[in-house]
Design a protein that fits this description.
The protein has about 375 residues and is mainly α. It has a domain of about 80 residues. About 70% of the residues lie in helices and about 0% in strands. The radius of gyration is 35 Å and the shape is elongated.
Length: about 375
């Protein structure tokens, strides 16, 4: 028979375990509260320290910018060296202070151009702050690497190109994009890195390259035909587009070779570009191609549009007239448009076709006569 003493003997260990768990839980909660408290105090101290450093940096950097605007270029800039000494004194051996200085220089440079921006870049290099950016690039954290790459690009650190190039093959998309844009800005020969670009040239990349190229001196533009034979199809298509956009007529012979490509996208874009560049001497090539692409809607349309731009009414009206009965409406539309552009001979061909065939082009012609439909 169990006694009350036996009952207590069994219950006491259970209460002991529960008490221990409760104490551990309370200790963990107190420790968490302490950590949060210390973290908040530390962050507040860090923010206060950062604000103080920024205030000091802003005063000195502003003086550097003003000094750059009024200094004489043929004399040693002793004031600049004095300001560098001031900044070194503030930074001391603190990595935190140097990080804040890098961030402040980048922030101020965003709203500056010309000599003022160059003064900040000079300060960045004079203080060897690129070392901080390189440390970020080599970080195991991808967001720090991306930040470092962006800083080096903003500060025109061409010496960092060999460090940045490997990130073109990174598995991280953000790192690939950052390295790509950095190389666009840093390389002395624009876009030379395309020679070894392993990945597809995305729409984002193409838009950013075009924006960059539209801002630089046209005399510094690369000859885009150098990439016409690239094994990366996306780069070839981009090169053709830029040849067309920047009207590089010297690349016409290269475009003619691309008309014989096995890739229909390359052929189509090459034909379009020949028309845009007014390559009249190659009209015969386009007309010959048109005879062979009747069953390929996109290529047929592009070839007709090209002939509309560089064609010869005497030679091309009969050929284009045969496309008025094409089964695809958009091809018929381009054929009508081209014939109307050819003037009297084209108009005569249209009238002859409408008079002799059951299938007429009246509905298409209304697009050119009715402003509400055109």
């Amino acid at each position: 028979m169990n006694t009350y003493g036996d009952y207590l003997a069994n219950v006491r260990p259970v209460y002991g375990v529960l008490a221990l768990i409760s104490l551990l839980f309370i200790a963990s909660a107190l420790l968490l509260i302490l950590v949060l408290f210390v973290t908040r105090i530390s962050k507040a101290y860090e923010d206060k320290k950062r604000a103080g450093l920024r205030k000091q940096y802003q005063k000195i950097l502003s003086k550097i910018i003003v000094n750059e605007s009024f200094s004489e270029k043929d004399k040693p800039n002793t004031a600049f060296e004095y300001y560098m000494a001031e900044l070194r004194l503030i930074c001391g051996g603190s990595a935190f202070a140097r990080h804040v200085l890098v961030a402040e220089i980048l922030q101020m440079k965003k709203s500056l151009t010309g000599n003022s921006a160059r003064a900040l870049i000079s300060a960045y290099h004079a203080l060897r702050l690129y070392r901080e950016s390189l440390r970020k690039v080599r970080s195991s954290a991808w967001h720090k690497s991306a930040m470092g790459i962006r800083e080096l690009a903003e500060m025109n650190c061409r010496e960092a190109i060999p460090v940045i190039v490997p990130f073109l093959r990174s598995a991280n998309q953000t790192l690939r994009k950052e390295s790509f844009m950095a190389l666009v800005h840093l390389e002395e020969q624009p876009l030379s890195f395309l020679n070894s670009l392993p990945s597809e040239l995305t729409l984002w990349m193409r838009v950013n390259i075009f924006y960059y190229l539209s801002k630089i001196d046209s005399r510094k533009l690369p000859v885009f035909s150098q990439w016409f034979s690239h094994r990366n199809i996306s780069i070839v298509l981009f090169a053709i587009s830029m040849t067309r956009q920047f009207q590089q007529r010297a690349s016409i012979p290269g475009l003619v070779k691309l008309v014989y490509s096995a890739n229909p996208k390359i052929v189509g874009l090459a034909i379009t570009t020949l028309g845009e560049l007014e390559a009249y001497q190659h009209r015969g090539l386009v007309a010959k191609l048109l005879c062979h692409v009747r069953n390929f809607e996109k290529l047929a349309r592009r070839a007709i549009i090209c002939l509309r731009q560089i064609g010869d009414p005497d030679l091309d009206v009969p050929l284009i007239k045969t496309f008025l009965a094409h089964p695809v409406y958009r091809v018929r539309y381009e054929a009508v448009y081209a014939l109307k552009k050819f003037g009297a001979k084209g108009e005569a061909a249209l009238s002859d076709f409408n008079a002799s065939r059951d299938v007429r082009t009246d509905s298409i012609l209304r697009h050119f006569s009715d402003p509400l439909l055109s």
